[in-house]
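Design job #97: recover the sequence.
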């Protein structure tokens, strides 16, 4: 799995729904940061129209609660958790202490909330650049959603290993996608229909068949057929689950301090 993934697109295109759907299917340990109360993260019972949070996703209201969970026996094996706090500092701490997470996929929703906060930006950049060395060398996988690629600073954009993009029209964004990934990818992004997404690098099977990218349709959270850049129908593809892993029995002194003091 790619270490740093961007899912970008205009408001209401479906990027949060798309990222959440992919990671629910592929991540063994998923930690979602939801600073803006995105509707796809609502429970289905609470929001029948847009909510898609499964019952087994545990919601925490503070990072103190998250830290206590991560140091408990419940954190061994597979799990899915979400932070929905009204305190900005909780999200800063969640990213700052990401260096202790083992075999975790971190979903950072609405990057602009973090990049506009100086205290959150520094640890986010560090996680982007050093994430491969986090967790005692196990590495951190991070997905970020943003309306525009240029919402991210250069230090984060430079580290991207994969991108899913909905339609973009801003010349600066398209120029970045062309230079960072490929001109063909940027052209496909500019020509997308609403609620369609193209990925780079393309699926290897699709590449062998001569396609430039893979389109996946997500119409308000429902999976459907998709078209590739030359108009052929194809099925959307979800990630392959990773092998089952467990946390190490050993915890660093610093991590114990985090749980004990909440900082």
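Job complete. Output follows.
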């Amino acid at each position: 799995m790619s270490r740093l993934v961007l899912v970008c697109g205009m408001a209401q295109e479906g990027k949060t729904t798309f990222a959440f759907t992919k990671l629910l299917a592929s991540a063994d340990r998923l930690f979602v940061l939801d600073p803006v109360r995105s509707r796809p993260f609502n429970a289905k019972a609470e929001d029948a129209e847009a909510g898609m949070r499964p019952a087994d996703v545990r919601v925490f209201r503070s990072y103190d609660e998250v830290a206590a969970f991560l140091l408990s026996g419940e954190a061994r094996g597979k799990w899915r958790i979400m932070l929905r706090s009204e305190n900005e500092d909780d999200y800063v701490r969640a990213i700052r202490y990401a260096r202790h997470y083992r075999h975790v996929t971190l979903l950072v929703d609405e990057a602009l909330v973090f990049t506009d906060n100086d205290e959150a930006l520094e640890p986010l950049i560090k996680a982007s650049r050093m994430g491969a060395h986090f967790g005692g060398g196990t590495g951190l996988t991070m997905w970020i959603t943003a309306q525009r690629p240029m919402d991210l600073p250069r230090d984060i954009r430079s580290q991207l290993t994969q991108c899913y993009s909905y339609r973009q029209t801003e010349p600066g964004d398209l120029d970045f996608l062309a230079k960072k990934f490929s001109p063909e990818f940027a052209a496909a992004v500019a020509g997308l229909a609403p609620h369609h997404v193209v990925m780079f690098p393309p699926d290897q099977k699709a590449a062998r068949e001569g396609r430039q990218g893979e389109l996946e349709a997500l119409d308000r959270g429902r999976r459907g057929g998709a078209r590739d850049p030359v108009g052929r129908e194809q099925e959307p593809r979800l990630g392959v689950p990773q092998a089952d892993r467990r946390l190490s029995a050993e915890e660093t002194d610093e991590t114990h301090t985090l749980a004990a003091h909440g900082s």
